[in-house]
Design a protein that fits this description.
mainly alpha; single chain
């Protein structure tokens, strides 16, 4: 049966146990030193552990920040889309006898499924609702006035700003994950090497292998 993949926290704990018990348990230190695990080699393991722990925390923080940025963007965009959808329906009623004006508001057909195109259509809608007198007059009857349109345009600019923050945080989160994964790969390689040697060095004391996080099959 294939061994279950260990979590990152389990790997960190296993490395900590190795480093701590090598230092605290004389027989482990004695037996492993016979196979070349001297202070320099253990210090290398300690540096791998510290680096993996540091990058784990960085990645956790970057992931959390990325999630907050996404949630903020999603919530604001959902609210804006809801307002725009209502305004768009009203505009079709207000301009029902003036189909030649519809293209100025980009209300022909259904709303775009592309978020980028949808945002562009929103900007067109609210900008022309302010700038084109005939459209402005027709929409004002339904309380879509300059103030409302300008508020929507402000919301659109906020969405764009939040999207930029989200994309920046997404890139930083991906870099943090890449660096963390590399550090864990290096630490796990060192752990596996230690365990392979420990099975030989401590074959007469199998219970000690379990103290460094390596379970022994019965």
């Amino acid at each position: 049966m294939k061994a279950k993949k260990q979590t990152e926290l389990q790997l960190l704990e296993n490395c900590r146990l190795i480093l701590n018990n090598f230092k605290e348990v004389p027989i482990i230190r004695e037996k492993m030193s016979e196979l070349g695990y001297n202070d320099a080699r253990m210090q290398h393991g300690a540096k791998l552990y510290e680096n993996a722990m540091r990058l784990y925390e960085i990645n956790k923080n970057e992931t959390a920040r990325h999630r907050v940025a996404y949630d903020k963007l999603a919530a604001d965009f959902a609210s804006l889309k809801k307002s725009y959808s209502r305004d768009r329906k009203i505009a079709k009623v207000a301009l029902r006898n003036y189909p030649e004006l519809w293209h100025y508001l980009s209300i022909n057909g259904s709303s775009s499924r592309s978020n980028l195109k949808l945002i562009s259509d929103m900007e067109t809608f609210y900008t022309n609702a302010i700038d084109i007198p005939e459209i402005k007059s027709l929409l004002a009857k339904y309380k879509i006035d300059d103030t409302t349109c300008q508020l929507r345009l402000n919301d659109i600019q906020l969405i764009k700003a939040n999207r930029d923050i989200y994309n920046k945080d997404k890139g930083q989160s991906q870099d943090a994950t890449k660096n963390k994964n590399k550090a864990f790969h290096q630490m796990q390689f060192w752990i596996n090497e230690f365990y392979a040697n420990a099975k030989i060095a401590l074959e007469d004391n199998p219970q000690l292998i379990e103290t460094i996080g390596k379970s022994i099959r019965s």
